[in-house]
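Usage

Read records sequentially. Each one opens with the input sequence:
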Amino acid sequence: MVTKRQRDKETSIVVKNLNKKFRINEKFIKKIAADILSILKKKKGLEIIFLGDKEIKPLNRKYKKRNAPTDVLSFELGELGEIVISSDMALKNSAIFHTSFEKEMVLYVIHGILHLFGYDDGTTREKMRMSKKEDAILEVLCQENFLKVLTRR
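and closes with the structure output:
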């Protein structure tokens, strides 16, 4: 039997912004993450941490053996999932992919959550499957105003 405390832990969402170049609307990120979990029909406690490239690079080196910054890292920690996002990379990639910074940030949240539920992007086929699921979730979320996500300092 699942206790109330376990159930609360499964569905809690914590957002931490450690990249002071950007102001994050934590309430909106929590709502987006909760909506994504609802769309996926999944329950899981989440911790979403926003860092800069300088801070995510050592994590990428340690856990993925890549000596470069990355956009998103996801860690399965039992009943909790941790997603680490580089806000710096989101800004760079929004220019490269001609999309808004806010949409890129939401896409990273989607991407990180999908990794926690078994989606991968290691092969072309896996990338296509994950991209298709990201697009489907993004379509549902498009009803929201991405400008609520954050503002640049």
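Summary fields computed downstream for this record:
- Residues 1-9 have pLDDT under 50 and may be disordered.
- The domain at 11-147 is CATH 3.40.390.30 (Collagenase (Catalytic Domain)).
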